[in-house]
Structure formats: C-alpha cells, structure tokens
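Hey, quick one: can you model this chain's 3D structure?
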Amino acid sequence: MRIWNLIILGGLLLFVAGCGGGAEKQARTAGGNEAVGGQTRKARPPATPPPPRKIDCDRVKCVSLTFDDGPGPHTARLLDTLKVRGVRATFFMLGEVVQQHAGVVRRMALEGHEVANHTWSHPDLTGLSPKEVRSQIERTQKAIRNASGVAPTLMRPPYGATNDEVGRLVGMPQILWSVDTRDWQFRSVGRDAKVGITKPERGGIVLYHDVHKESVDSIPKVVVGLKKRGFTLVTVTEMFRGERLKPGETYTEDPVEAEPLTASPTASPAPGSPTGTAPEPSPTGPSSNPGQ
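Sure thing. Here's the predicted structure for all 292 residues.
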C-alpha cells in the first residue's frame, strides 16, 4: 500500500513540475512576444531623404559631380567615399539596373544625393519613336521611385543626344555637362583624377561613370583636389539654388555662367561605347566620345 502511495505521490510531483515548466516556458514566450511587440511599437518611422541644402552658389564656388550608367558593383564604395568626405552628388541611372541595386539606390536618396533619370537602356533618343521615348523615361521614373521613394526631376539623355522633340517628350530639364572626363575611354585613375581636379570651373557639371572601377578609385583624390581649389561640391539641384529649370531645355552648367544649350546631333553612330553605339556630342559641338 505504501508503495502505491509513493507511486501516486511521485506522479503528482512530476505533473506539478511539468505544469510549472510549461507555465515558465509560456511566460518566457509571452515575455518574448511582449519584447518584440514593444520594439514594434517603438520602431521609428521609415527615414526620408533630406532636402537639398541651402547653399548659395552665388557666394561660394560650387561644382557638381555627376555619375552616369549606374548603379553598379562599385557604386556602394563610391557612396562610402562621398559620405566620409561630406559630399553630395547626382546619379543619372539606367532603369534596367536599378532593381538589381535597389538598396544602393535607396541609400543614395537617404544620404542626400540626387537621383536622376538616364533612360531605361541607354539608347539614342533621337532615333526612337515618341512612344519609345516615353517608355524609356516613364519606366525609369517608376523604377527609381520604387527603389528610392523619390521621383527624379532631372534627366540626362544618353550620349547627350537630344532635340526639340525629345525634350518635349521627356518633359524634364535635360542636364549635360561642362567637363567630360572621358573616364569610360581611358580607364586611368591618375588621368581621371587630374581632369576632375583641374578642368572644372565655377558652376561646372563634371561627368563620371560609377560603373567603372578606375573612376570610383579616382574620386577620393578628386574631392580633396577640388576642395583645395576652394570648391563646394553640390548636387545639380543645389547648384541651381532651387531655380525652376525649364522642362525640355538642356543645361551644361550654372546658367549664371553660360546660356542653356540644346543639342541636335546628326553625326552617324561611332563604335566603341560600353553601353551603346551613338555618337557623343560635347557642349560645344560634335565629339567622338560615345560613352555617356
């Protein structure tokens, strides 16, 4: 009888211990859920891109670094460089590669860089139908907006190739450049740095490509060199100090320094471009550079 009493007592003790363990486990689980819930309730709202800085380029010597054809495998490293040095730039991006680097594009916007439209697949817009031109622009607008949360307000026509009809269809200011580093052609860190440091003038817009390793490698030297020359590095929008740039017009630099330009290239295509085959007009006339 005593044996049965001991067995029953032992069973009761095991049952109570099991219930206690289950209760403790349930409490731990509930506590964990509460903590997670607490974190959710305390989570900060999503970050939003900062507005353009209020920099008066009439008073300070401004220059704008711009990067085409990305984002690419070197763009994140370029953003690291710009962040460390407190520099903002403008990125003219291809819609077809934006989704592959959506996180990088989002980071661009959150760190104050300007996101801009460089078409979907880098064609010469002057050779496309109106429907094709609109598609190139609209698809890219959507891709960049989805990735960054920001809709671009500026675009750069591939190769700088545009005309009145393209400008009307694009419906945004078209940003060219005053300094073409031709980095896509020479792929030289030393040359890219030298051109980027010595050629810009006040109000200038400098063209690089963040898809090339050598270009990205040159930027630390470029930033240091330009700052030594007294430049403040700004986005294109900051350069123009919030002025309303006209849709369809083409700009090569701060309009205080020069009149807007409308380019209408008619030369035949030239081989050798890393992203296309159209000729590259310069702000002062036809050029053999096909790499923009």
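One thing worth noting: Residues 227 and 233 are 8 Å apart (CA to CA).
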